[in-house]
Specification:
The structure is a homodimer of 496-residue chains.
Chain A: H1 2-7, H2 14-34, H3 64-75, H4 97-109, H5 120-136, E1 150-154, H6 157-176, E2 184-189, H7 194-202, E3 210-213, H8 225-237, E4 241-248, H9 260-269, E5 273-277, H10 288-291, E6 302-305, H11 307-310, E7 318-322, H12 325-332, H13 342-346, H14 365-400, E8 404-406, E9 414-419, H15 429-446, E10 452-456, E11 459-465, H16 473-493
Parallel strand pairs in A: 2-3, 2-4, 4-5, 5-6
Antiparallel strand pairs in A: 1-7, 6-7, 8-9, 9-11, 10-11
Organism (chains A, B): Turnera subulata
Protein name (chains A, B): Tyrosine decarboxylase
Keywords (chains A, B): Decarboxylase, Lyase, Pyridoxal phosphate
């Protein structure tokens, strides 16, 4: 075997690792320095990339320098810059230095965290950090490890929903037989994120069994417990089995909040699994002034929120807490011989593979733990409040310009607004929609900012989601100037 | 608003980012330098971590130095070191410098890659790199973008299985009505990974409808097409609907290979969705001498393999190809108004969110692309062959010691072996199992290496999965010496 070692290449040699990594660090730091120079929404056309690269993989190694050059020339122009301070679209995806450091450590150790045995630190730190988060959010003890509940880190809300739906489903099917699957009904509002619909389909419940209950302007698009109860009663009468309710704290379209406590009571009354999706606004609930939106969370079976949105945690990171992990484990556990080990057999340890979909789990708890320690609760609250303050500032600017209106009262850092068709004109939703689409297009095509839209209660509006990590007051002011400027042009060219 | 900016903190300031990141790079490089000093399998006891940290999150920021000190003191002892050159357990999780660089770039840009519009580069590079991989594996054109098929990057095999199962299921349910879900049958061998069982449960098919068809020693634990066809016929007779077949190239327990072409013919005959799971061994198929294991792959509907196992790609990265992406999209697509955009509406672009579970997708294509470019096909083949050569070397060492036996002929870089109870003794499986468990325990508790076990055809054996990135000839030799040493002790103390 003498020839083997000398020929061997060393793809993880520490000195190379260090040197190459530092080059990439500098590259990324430069990217952040220059980020305002790039159009926020990528301006490339479909198919732009293909001609820029060979259509087969290289046969021989290429230099890091060449790769970085190509990223500069061909990849960056095709990015929509989520880290740009002028990104106000969808919801922000907060990168931070701390989040990045945590990702590096996770990727560096590269442990596969499917069971306690495969890295006790990864399992136990996940338990610890989920308890920290639960306390910051003032979740009741039954969601914590000390209270027989617990948290787990998923990649996305959709995964959290799939797993809780499966757990809820299997509890009922065990009792009622598998044929009952076509009778299971899932409740949400018409504002609930599309992940629920997808999750329902994935777990084999007929998509037509989702009740997207109507919401309206007067209630700020929150789900009425009366509407919910009426729907449940109707379904029971028709022979359906009410299974699962998804409430939302901070909907995607307009940031609406469902009344957690009141919905929880209905859910308990009819024995539904009650999940609360606070993907976006959950982060805000670490501030006392927002925590009241979670009042009644003790009535929920599960609760999820995404630190990868507004909690300075680079992708991906979704926190899911459940009051009864056994119901998840019942649905998701597998026990093949090749994964058996003494710890699992005898020591009452957590194997998080049984709390989620994949066996191949990353050690992302480390990332969330670094984010929390590096900032601390006080700074994290400051972070949330700064964004809310900026959003409130933007809202005040909109309110001062009589050509515009704020469509819905702002709750967090999302401002829903639109250009009005004109003071003296009869309300004309079609015209409004046309104008606002043009305005939004004008803003986005300028490359100087990126926002998205939504339609709620038949009203088309523009969403300004304030809260990208690099966004400062000057960016919000710049955005507003840009909007005003484009609005003037749109109104000038408008054909009534 | 004057006070806002001055008070603002800067969690992504480029200079801080660069300085802190480089400290962490040095920390990780030191970890790799020292990795052989740590016990490979963590020796901590359950609950070790809790007393070492406060049970609530810190209120104020902590320094990076303190955090790194804690990782050194409290986290590293609780890691099972998957990157240790003495890690021979499960299957390897190949980290590499290139994979790490790719992860950093992915995390640095931190784009949310759910649709073309949210970063055209991320979508188009994913298409490109999946075509590159398909060509390296010599997948037939219908799996490539030019042939109306295509690839997508998932996080794990389980996700790939859930999505393809859902697609297969919905095609049948659309025809037969949703009630038919209880009649759907999924086929695999008794060697198929537990992900299939989990996936079936997740998508709402009764777990009792999985046929784990028997395999045996004489056929090397590969699934017989005759057994499969007999099972299908029996199910049809009983009123079931054959739905899905999962074949495996390189099973977890012993590296068995199902006969792809022959199984494919049966699958086509009965109109089953045929998925091939090559999570581990797929990487080897970039070498012509292994490619024949995929002969007949043109008969498959989908094919998956995990670069995060044996392809120098840090976690996570699972490649899934399908011949007909429309069937995935049919099952997984969601079209809420707030995600509508001109590109999706009119330009015939890919929105990968409709090819997988989550909406929140990372730009992991960049990582796989960096890995491929940085190494090139020739070096990647060399990497596979080096590991296979080392495994073959280990196998020859086992064969030379008459106290041991190689349980099954090695196909890739996994050696299945065991200590025999003694030459002249009657075969006694219980005794063998006891001896080999003791031997394995002795090796793992020494901290000097980590292997795992499996049971196949009633035979308990030790698995030596050669292929951690840092493993060299001397580690394999050290492992063998350790095994011999522990075996001597085990045999000396054995009570027959």
């Amino acid at each position: 075997m003498a020839s083997l070692s000398t020929n061997a290449f060393h793809p993880l040699e520490p000195t190379d690792f260090s040197q190459d990594s530092k080059k990439v660090i500098d590259f990324i730091a430069d990217y952040y320095k220059n980020i305002e120079k790039y159009p926020v929404l990528s301006q490339v056309k479909p198919g732009y990339l293909k001609p820029q690269f060979p259509d087969t993989a290289p046969y021989s190694p290429e230099s890091l320098e060449d790769i970085l050059k190509d990223i500069d020339a061909s990849i960056i122009p095709g990015l929509t810059h989520w880290q740009s301070p002028n990104f106000f679209a969808y919801f922000q995806a907060n990168a931070s230095t701390a989040g990045f450091l945590g990702e590096m450590l996770c990727s560096g150790f590269n442990v596969v965290n499917f069971g306690w045995i495969t890295s006790p630190a990864a399992t136990e730190l996940e338990t610890l950090v989920m308890d920290w988060m639960a306390k910051m959010l003032e979740l009741p003890p039954p969601f914590m490890s000390s209270g027989n509940g617990g948290g787990v880190l998923h990649s996305s809300t959709c995964e959290a929903i799939v797993c809780t739906l499966a757990a809820a489903r299997d509890k009922v099917l065990t009792k009622n037989g598998h044929e009952a699957i076509t009778k299971l009904v899932v409740y949400s509002s018409d504002q609930t994120h599309s992940s629920l619909q997808k999750g329902v389909k994935l777990v084999g419940i007929p998509p037509t069994n989702v009740r997207c209950l109507p919401t309206a302007f007067p209630e700020g698009f929150s789900l009425s417990p009366l509407t919910l109860e009426a729907a449940i009663r109707k379904d029971i009468k028709s022979g359906f089995i009410p299974l699962y309710l998804c409430g939302t704290v901070g909907t995607t379209a307009c940031g609406a909040v469902d009344p957690v406590g009141k919905l929880g009571k209905v859910a308990r009354k009819y024995n539904l699994w009650f999940h609360i999706d606070a993907a976006y606004a959950g982060s805000a609930c670490i501030c006392p002034e927002f925590r009241h939106y979670l009042d009644g969370v003790e009535l929920a079976d599960s609760f999820s929120m995404n630190p990868h949105k507004w909690f300075l945690t680079n992708m991906d990171c979704c926190c899911l807490w459940v009051q009864n992990p056994d119901s998840l484990i019942e649905s998701l556990s597998t026990k093949p011989e090749y994964l058996r080990n003494g710890a699992t057999d005898t020591l009452n340890v957590i194997d998080y593979k049984d709390w989620q979909i994949a066996l191949s789990r990353r050690f992302i708890a480390l990332k969330l733990w670094v984010v929390i320690r590096r900032h601390g609760l006080a700074t994290l609250r400051f972070h949330i409040r700064s964004d809310v303050k900026l959003a409130s500032y933007f809202e005040s600017l909109v309110a001062k310009d009589s050509r515009f209106e704020v469509v819905l009262p702002r709750k967090f850092a999302l401002v829903c607004f639109r250009l009005k068709a004109g003071k003296n004109k009869a309300h004309n939703e079609n015209l409004n929609q046309r104008l606002n689409k043009k305005l939004l297009q004008g803003v986005n095509e300028s490359g100087n900012a990126f926002m998205t839209h939504a339609v709620v209660g038949g009203v088309y509006f523009i969403r300004c989601a304030v809260g990208s990590t690099l966004t400062e007051e000057r960016h919000v002011e710049g955005l507003w100037k840009l909007i005003q400027d484009k609005a003037t042009k749109v109104l000038l060219n408008a054909t009534y």
